[in-house]
Design a protein that fits this description.
oxidoreductase; two-stranded antiparallel ribbon; elongated; 342 residues; EC 2.3.1.225; binds zinc ion; single chain
């Protein structure tokens, strides 16, 4: 009787139910994580996560909305203020120069705003609805490497992650960006990269144009005189005094245009440096065939090989580009092997 009870308790310990197909599986040893031999779903017996409180979700939602509005306002401000401060200068140079500047500004503004809206308001990539739960309906290997999302109470595909801000599972989730109020995932990652590129190019353009305009409306500076003033201490002091006098002059500092020129140049330079670092990190992750979340969670095994083909695939480059890349990489490999033999 005692022996029977012992056998039953061992069976209970090692018997687990697969969430995917509902079959009860008898495991050889106790394991908190196991994979179903029928449907391929992975069941984890780890600690159940508590759902987020309403207060926490509300705070994240408000933070995202606030930052999206800040980002939109900042972009609108840079466009409007940039046009206002630079317009008189470029049109004073020549009509063609003014038209050219207006066209470039309109194109950059359109691309930046449209890619921002696409990245922010397009779904980041929700998993497809799949049947699960009971054996006759769930087919063999139909839930291969799926896990169960305890937040959504739904199956989670292998390359998906749950975002607590968006309150959904996101395919190929890279990260949740509060400035677009959305996750960066399979469906909007390209728009996000295009947005970063567009902002960086636009900021470079703004820095260039504001510097040029400041130089143009700052005739008193006479940089040539300052540079050719000499290298001795007295000349350097005179040059410094001259620069300080010009900076404090009403032409630049006391006019709204001068203040805006300085602000726009420095603000856009700072944004450009910050976003260039972010873009570099994003392109590196794509090259490595990973996402930022997968690097953080060390789930490298779920991604493929690293290489330029990942970047071409990401941007949807045509097939001939792949062939060109493969042929060039094969040629370099052949060259390497022949040099080793020699
Ligand atoms: Zn199963
Ligand atoms: Zn989820
Ligand atoms: Zn998210």
């Amino acid at each position: 009787m005692k022996e029977e009870h012992h056998v039953a308790s061992i069976l209970d310990d090692h018997e687990r139910e697969c969430w995917g197909c509902g079959l009860r599986l008898l495991l050889a040893t106790y394991s908190p994580v196991f994979k179903c031999g029928w449907c391929g779903a992975i069941t984890s017996q780890n600690r159940k996560r508590k759902p987020d409180s309403a207060c926490f979700s509300r705070w994240r939602c408000l933070r995202d909305r606030f930052l999206v509005i800040v980002a939109l306002l900042f972009m609108s401000f840079v466009i409007c203020a940039g046009v206002w401060v630079v317009y008189p200068t470029v049109f004073s140079i020549g009509y063609f120069c003014g038209i050219f500047h207006s066209t470039v500004t309109a194109i950059l503004s359109f691309i930046t705003i449209s890619t921002f809206l696409l990245a922010a308001f397009r779904s980041a990539g929700s998993p497809v609805v799949i049947t699960w739960g009971s054996y006759p309906i769930v087919g063999k290997n139909s839930l291969e490497n799926y896990t169960f999302c305890t937040y959504c109470a739904k199956p989670k595909p292998p390359r998906a992650h749950h975002c607590r801000s968006c309150q959904m599972c996101v395919l190929d989730m890279d990260h949740h960006c509060p400035f677009i109020g959305n996750c960066v995932g399979a469906e909007n990652h390209r728009y996000f990269i295009a947005f970063l590129l567009s902002v960086i190019v636009s900021c470079l353009y703004v820095v260039g144009m504001t510097s040029y305009s400041a130089y143009h409306i700052w005739p008193a500076l006479e940089l040539e005189n300052v540079v050719s003033a000499g290298t001795d201490t007295m000349s350097a002091m005179r040059a410094l005094k001259h620069i300080l006098a010009v900076i404090a002059s009403p032409v630049l500092l006391l006019s709204a245009r001068g203040l805006l020129l300085i602000y726009l140049a420095f603000a856009c330079l700072a944004v450009k440096i910050g976003l260039s670092a972010l873009l570099w990190q994003q392109l590196y992750c794509i090259y490595e065939g990973k996402t930022y979340v997968s690097i953080l969670s060390s789930q490298n095994s779920e991604h493929g090989e690293k290489g330029c083909q990942n970047i071409l695939r990401f941007f949807g480059c045509p097939f001939w580009a792949f062939r060109l890349l493969l042929s060039s990489s094969n040629a370099s490999k052949l060259q390497e092997s022949s040099s080793k033999i020699l």
